[in-house]
Specification:
alpha/beta, 12 helices, 20 strands, Alkaline Phosphatase, subunit A, single chain
Length: 455
């Protein structure tokens, strides 16, 4: 397959792209199995357990497609050309085993649950990632750049339906926006809800010495009084502009300008960004990786009231896209993930934040059961896994099961739209809610169903 260079924040990650006609024909049959949105009704979300339990959400995206075998669904009894080089280890929850590459997470399985029956029909990185970001299949041919007609990201939905009254950004993209040469991966922005709901990007690495965000530093030459005067002047300009111009893009720009001024003047945000206030012991526990620093910063942002943080994977030359050297690649990547995510979950628990903070660890698809000639695994959206914790998710549970070779779901089929519905439900937004597009047409928020087995 052809390859493209993906830039995530300040770094480039090489992933492959493209899907064959044969794949599309084969995967098209998933609709008959109930793996596409709209096949089944949505449950009565507001009457189900856990509605509105969470106040924050950390969306940890493993871009590139992590292997289910080397993460949450190992198959130690499968043939060697499927099983791979690594075994399974027991967790501290009886009956749940995960890859031996995650010993720290094995010790805290009582705090999270796993999904082992995810599937959809898209084997292309960018458009499959759109589905993970939004909970909807990509509706246009090819992989064009983001559009105002895209479905909104999960963070944008939460900012719209559950606006925060704190003087903090509603959605922060830690690691910045995912950039695919020559453009941005779609699904990360406000889309149909408008650019005012775009995330605030923080591409800088919180693990780097001297970490700071220049855009949020209030210049010594600008006093708080002058900042308030600028905000008042902007209010007056906006009022005049609204009388003459109703263009949605302009409205979004006004919202972004206001948000920028609020952020610059926000003592809470500036305090959260002071990473040097963390003790060396805490920073060591998260690890020196970029992911560890971003998750530690996410915790600090939640402590000052930020509702949503998307956390992008930036570690590893090939992201999780190991078409070759799958086993040394996953060994390296899982060492980072195991340390950072286990530290994040335990830290949230110790600080009393886990009950109100939903943690989602999700990629765009999994990897093929058969190991290829280059000792790698290829794209596989027919069956993959995810990890969820906190915010109303019961620990020590597993939703669904894959077959003997983790090739297809065997029980409780579900898709990214069901994760979206679960996320909205726990954050207090009914997945059946409607919003309106730019032509005032009603759009349903989600056609998935909350995963009640995990609540």
């Amino acid at each position: 397959m052809d390859s493209v260079v993906l830039g995530l924040g300040l770094r480039n990650t090489r992933v492959c792209a493209g899907r064959t006609r044969r794949e599309l024909l084969r995967l098209g049959g998933l609709g008959a199995l109930g793996l596409l949105p709209g096949v089944r009704p949505v449950s009565a979300s507001d009457r189900a357990p856990g509605f509105g339990r969470a106040r924050h959400v950390a969306l940890i995206y493993l871009f590139g497609g992590a292997s289910q075998f080397e993460t949450w669904d190992p198959k130690p009894d499968a043939p060697s050309d499927t099983r791979g080089e690594f075994g399974a280890i027991e967790t501290n929850v009886s009956g749940i085993r995960i890859s031996e590459l995650a010993p720290r997470l094995a010790r805290c399985a009582h705090r999270y649950s796993l999904i082992r029956s995810l599937a959809h029909r898209d084997n292309t990185h960018d458009t499959a990632m759109y589905t993970s970001y939004t909970g909807w299949p990509f509706g246009r041919p090819g992989t064009p750049p983001p559009s105002p007609d895209d479905r909104p990201s999960h963070g944008a939905v939460l900012a719209h339906f559950k606006p925060s009254h704190a003087n903090v950004p509603p959605v922060v993209a830690l690691g910045g926006m995912v950039i695919n040469t020559p453009g941005e991966v779609p699904g990360q922005r406000g889309g149909l809800l408008g650019s005012r709901y775009d995330p605030f990007p923080l591409p800088q690495s919180p693990s780097a010495p001297g970490f700071h965000v220049p855009e949020l530093n209030l210049s010594e030459r600008i006093s708080a009084l002058r900042l308030d005067r600028r905000r008042s002047l902007l209010d007056e300009v906006d009022a005049a502009r609204r009388l003459a111009d109703s263009e949605p893009g302009a409205s979004g720009l006004q919202g972004y300008q206001h948000r920028a001024l609020d952020l610059i003047g926000s003592a809470q945000t500036r305090r959260a960004l002071k990473m040097d206030e963390e003790s060396p012991a805490v920073r060591e526990r998260y690890g020196k990786s970029g992911l560890g620093g971003r998750l530690l910063l996410a915790r600090r942002l939640f402590e000052v009231g930020v509702p949503c943080a998307t956390v992008h994977w930036l570690d590893g030359d090939n992201s999780w896209d190991y078409h070759s050297n799958n086993f040394p690649g996953h060994k390296k990547s899982m060492a980072v993930l195991d340390q950072a995510v286990s530290a994040f979950i335990e830290d949230l628990h110790l600080r009393g934040l886990l009950d109100e903070t939903l943690v989602v660890v999700l990629g765009e698809f999994g990897r093929t059961p058969k190991i290829n000639k280059d000792a790698g695994r290829d794209h596989w959206a027919d069956c993959y896994s995810a990890l969820l914790a906190g915010g109303g998710i019961q620990g020590g549970r597993v939703h669904g099961a894959s077959d003997k070779t983790a090739a297809y779901p065997a029980e409780d089929l579900c898709g990214p739209w069901d994760i979206a519905a679960t996320l909205y439900h726990l954050l207090g937004v009914d997945p059946r809610s409607e919003y309106y597009d730019r032509l005032s047409r009603p759009m349903v928020l989600s056609q998935g169903s909350p995963l009640l087995t995990l609540l």
